[in-house]
Task: inverse folding
């Protein structure tokens, strides 16, 4: 069945264009912090946004999955469809998943097309590990966590992301503002 | 991490309370048609709504699942978490899944709490099979489809749904209006 209310209509109602901001980067790079800053900027600008948070999804929708390559692929397969629904609903969603593999990110891009904006939250492994906000690197180094990105599982850096923010050189507020400005320039928000 | 923008804040921004309308009923009962009517009513009332459609989810998020009892359970497990995110985003979502088993619906209710509104889209099997809008009953009777609800898989009627609409006695517009009025009375919309 074709529903009567289209994405175009919902976009117009919300005075924006629903889109998916796909954050990728190491654990500790600052994805969640920047998402939270950006979300507040968008709300202040009267936009309709939502954070699809990796940790929350891992605790709910993907609680049956582990961190091996196959389960990471399935995790991203699911969230790309959830992001598609939020996009279709006219919402600006901020997806904060490590998403370490190029092939999995490409599948999300293929599905979402023009509504996929890849944002590389860039930080060296050295700095991310020094920050270690959740103590996960330490546990991974001690062998308590397996398949941890950067330690015993690779992170494939994005080759052509729409946007790169470097959290070693910029504050999280500066990073969030750079992404907000991008949305303005591309006319996703007014 | 606790995000700065809460459901309460998003609800206020949208001048409504995000909630999940969980439609349950046989294939052919009219779930999708009523959802489409209700969605239009909500949009006309300046609300922010979205349909989480069973067929769309089956083609995307749950395309790896079949129709046996275990996979039906997993399908509903996933969508209840998606619905939770839409609810948290302040959206009124309309979930149109057959959801034939009481135990699976209860799990959704347990997760969503006060934001779970079960709407029984009531039609006799006889009438649903006569309508057969997608020709699925015919295929199920011919043995081409297995585990089809009402034919070789049971439908457990809701015992205490928040709302019952009878599509043998009311038009889809009347059913949608009844649900809309319920949302008004319960102050989910103004």
Result:
């Amino acid at each position: 069945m074709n529903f009567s209310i289209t994405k175009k209509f919902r976009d117009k109602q919300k005075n924006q264009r629903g889109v998916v901001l796909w954050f990728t980067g190491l654990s500790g790079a600052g994805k969640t912090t920047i998402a939270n800053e950006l979300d507040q900027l968008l709300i202040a600008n009267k936009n309709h946004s939502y954070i699809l948070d990796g940790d929350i999804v891992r605790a709910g929708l993907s609680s049956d999955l582990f961190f091996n390559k196959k389960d990471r692929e399935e995790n991203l397969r699911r969230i790309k469809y959830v992001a598609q629904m939020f996009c279709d609903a006219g919402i600006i969603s901020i997806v904060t998943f490590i998403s370490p593999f190029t092939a999995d990110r490409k599948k999300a891009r293929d599905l979402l097309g023009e509504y996929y904006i890849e944002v590389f939250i860039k930080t060296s492994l050295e700095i991310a590990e020094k920050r270690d906000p959740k103590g996960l690197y330490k546990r991974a180094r001690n062998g308590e966590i397996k398949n941890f990105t950067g330690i015993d599982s690779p992170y494939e850096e994005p080759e052509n992301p729409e946007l790169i923010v470097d959290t070693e050189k910029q504050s999280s507020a500066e990073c969030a503002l750079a992404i907000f400005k991008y949305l303005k320039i591309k006319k996703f928000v007014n």
Summary: Strands of chain A lie at 19-24, 49-53, 92-96, 116-122, 163-166. Residues 28 and 133 of chain A are 6 Å apart (CA to CA).
